[in-house]
Specification:
single chain, elongated, Membrane protein, transmembrane, membrane, transmembrane helix
Length: about 70
């Protein structure tokens, strides 16, 4: 447990090296790509399990809070 800070610093230094070279570390995606991958599955699960009404209700509540 006490060695956690040392490992974190080593990982952070490795990320900085990748960032400065302009290359993306393997295993990461742009957030928009990840969103585009997840949304169809989320919509399918909402329809299949009957959660679509809950999604619409929540979106409506957020819209009211934002003043739309």
């Amino acid at each position: 447990m006490s060695d956690t800070a040392t490992r974190t610093m080593i990982r952070t230094q490795g990320r900085r090296a990748h960032a400065s070279s302009g290359a993306r570390p393997s295993g990461t995606r742009h957030p928009l790509v990840a969103t585009a991958m997840v949304l169809p599955l989320a919509a399918l699960l909402a329809v299949v399990f009957g959660g679509w009404d809950a999604v619409v209700t929540q979106a409506s509540s957020v819209g009211v809070m934002l003043g739309r």
